[in-house]
Amino acid sequence: MPLTEAELWKVYANKIKDDYLQQSDFGSQNKIFIPPINSQAVLASGPIKQSQTNFGVFRASDPLLKVDNPSFTPSNDGYAQKCLNYLRAVQLDTDASAGLVQNRDAAYQRLTAASERFQAVAEKARAAWQDEFDYPGTPLYQWTMQNYPMYMVADHEQKAASAEFDQVMYNIHGPNYMTLVKMKQNLQLALEQQPSPFTMVVNAALPDAAENTVADEYRPKYDIDAGYAKQVEAWIDQAVDGDDQHEKASIVISASETSDYDWHSVGFDESKIDASGGFWPFFRVEYAGSHMNRYDDVKVDESSSSLSVKILADGISSFAVTPSSTWNPGNIKQTYPNLYKSASQQLWDPMVQVSKIVVGYNVRIEISLDSDTYNSITSKVDTALSRDASASATLFGCRLNLGGSYNDSESNFTNWSDVKKDGDSNTFVISASNNTIPVLLAVVGTVLS
Helices then strands (H, E): number in the chain? Predict the structure, then answer.
């Protein structure tokens, strides 16, 4: 098989499985998904606030994954929202009269339209909240009530349509329908922008950010292994103490071993692999052009047979993440397999839910290349910087800041000036970008179908 970026990530996923997920069973139900290699994981311990930890737990746990795409490409709907949309589309067996069935179908269409309007308004309200110059410190749910009346109108319309639909369904199915109603009510409470047993406060601020630069929000509550914070604290303590006695974790990937592994062993059907939504080029530089952003890529091919990547970390471990029992409806596709014919195709598709995350600490990367690939990368960086002093790049999924002030709350980044470059050995060494931020190295997705 020709050497591609996807082939390298196939080796990476298998190495993660063999070394850090030995207790997991991979096949049609469990799969390994690969994020950009310097994605921020869950902040924890020390000065980290619970809301910052919660942000990481939610961001890693709520996205739904694509069943045939091994890259970590979160869909628009999160798990909680998708469950609610699904339960609203459930069709129960009935011998009701034609008139009641007609009323049911009409009520469902009104509910679907009201829900779509509400979700669109909610997105606009959140964008307006973020753009408001004085929003920091004001939680989203408070801000929308005070400053975005259309949100409250859309919320009222959605709840009214939901109540109407539930009443029609109760008239058809009687008390048996109440179990489904309770599931939907719990999910609605989890998606409310206000404190409750169904939600958790989240804050995307990084450890070194000034207070109140990011406001609190409320998101569906998720849980992570109780030992997570202690493990992160232990890693940090080892780094602070200069403890070199503990064996460092490593993942070594070589272009020469791509034929030794397959996708099936990490949960995917080789014939259905779809990497169109991920597996970013091996190297990509981005810079501002005259009218639009421009990209310049370096891809791997057969000439890159000497390529190798060594990922080192002070520690790597896996941790379970689970939706809160206060609102999680379980495997609703098994419980309620039938939907209305008019339901969105996305609701019929399998849902892949994050069930574990693999986290590394103090992650650094050594990349060895052939001379042509090495020189091509350095040349493209020089060209980009000559045109845009704030250009950025990615190298094997690592975000690199070439000269600007790149920063966000979802990725670590390393300055290009801090990358060690050796033209004699054609090697790049990317040092750990931030010793306070654990790195998300992989996630395990469980298929609900």
Answer: 11, 19
Q: What share of the chain is helix, strand, coil (3-state, %, to 5)?
A: 40, 25, 40
- Answer yes or no: pTM beyond 0.90: no
Structure tokens at 368: 């060895």
DSSP string, 293-319: EEEEEE---GGGTT-EEEEEESEEEEE
Residue matched to tokens 């310049």: 296
Q: How far is the CA of 147 from the CAs of 31, 135, 152, in angstroms? A: 43, 11, 10
Angle at which helix 140-147 crosses helix 98-131, to 10 degrees, equals 100
Question: Residue 308 class from Cβ within 10 Å (0-12 exposed, 13-18 middle, 19+ buried)?
Answer: middle
Residue 201: how many other CB atoms lie within 10 Å: 17
For residues 314 and 192, give the distance between their C-alpha atoms in angstroms, rounded to a whole number.
Answer: 39
**Per-residue pLDDT tens for 47-72?**
888 999 999 999 999 999 988 889 88
Is 254 in a helix, a strand, or coil? strand
Rounded Cα distance, 105 and 125, in Å: 30
Place of tokens 């070194």: 208
Place of tokens 């403890």: 243
Tokens of 26: 């991979």
Whose tokens are 């091509």? That residue is 376
Q: Is 115 in contact with 161 (CB distance < 8 Å)?
A: yes
Q: Which pLDDT tens digit goes with each residue over 226-278?
A: 999 999 999 988 877 766 555 688 999 999 999 999 999 999 988 888 766 56
Total residues belonging to the chain: 449
In sequence order, which ranges of 329-370 are alpha helices (DSSP H)?
A: 332-335, 345-348
Sign of CA dihedral 415, 420, 424, 425: negative
Q: Extract the tokens encoding 346.
A: 């996305």
What are residue 283's DSSP bridge partners?
298, 395
Whether 255 and 304 have beta carbons less than 8 Å apart is answered as yes
Q: Where are the beta strands (DSSP E) in 25-176?
A: 30-33, 39-40, 64-65
Question: In this structure, what token pair is assigned to residue 136?
Answer: 């920091």
What CA–CA distances, in Å, run from 285 to 35, 280, 295, 416?
19, 11, 6, 12
